[in-house]
Request: fold
Amino acid sequence: MEPFHFLNREAREQAELHRLAPAAGRSIRSKGRAEPEEPDPLRTAFERDRDRIIHSNAFRRLARKTQVFIDPVNDHFVTRLTHTLQVAQIGRSMAVALGLNEALTEAICLGHDIGHSPFGHTGEDALNEILDEGWVHADHSERILSVIEPLNLTWEVRDGIRAHPWRVEQGPSTPEGALCRFADRIAYLSHDPIDAMRAGIIRYRDMPFAAQARLGEQHGRWVTTMVHAVVEGSIQAGQIAMEPDIAEAMDELRNFMFERVYLRPEGQAMRRQAMQIVKDLVGYFSAHPAEIPASSALDTDPPLQRAVDYVAGMTDRFAGRVHADRCG
Reply:
């Protein structure tokens, strides 16, 4: 008996046709890439996209970008990179349980926050005020992967990344993209309270009663409960959904986190400072476009767009250092 089974791309594509659920995305049925290219001999199209995202420069920068707490000194606080890895793990687990395409789900999850600005949503708010048409990190994620650091990803992955925020009315076109939406929220509502407790902002007994009663007492239990609620809710509904009672508890927890952590009055001074750093940097590089690295923006774009693209790609600490050097 041979010790290995050689499964090339064609074999894996055929396996997807027979193994996955009817609603799942199949690599062989992808809408394709903007630029046609030869298939990889070993990997499916979605596996190839996943690998390209992981090896991108923008993905590496997530290690030094804020999740909630700006430039935390404690090594155990969640960064945008660790959040992204948790989203990918949660999304993949749900995809496997539902018979969906795990590689497609993983690719979307790994790329969903790749365009986040420095200082998290605070930086996003600053950039949104600068551009007349607004600025959304999900749109910038797709811009990075398609224009600034073009990876020629499949349509399904780009669609899932673009539409992953819940505020995007036209949601993802694939069930794998819809899973990323839930995985993102499950991840941050599991790890952000832990960080807030670690920072001394809240205590466990402050948590909403529904969250304590329905999600369990430990972080690991929260993830498990919410994952099971999506898997079971989706099977019952025939589409990606969460069981109503757990969804209600999750919404209560989310409202609590916005009130007590994300928008707490004590953090507003730091928030204003971070927003000013972003605005100052965009103003400076708009006036000095020659200082923008060629790899960070397109030379053919107007100076303001180039400045926004460059600043949006900065890590928190790099933005602080450049601000001190150029705008201090």
Notes: The chain has 15 helices and no strands. The mean pLDDT is 93. The CA atoms of residues 173 and 198 lie 38 Å apart. The two ends are 69 Å apart (CA to CA).
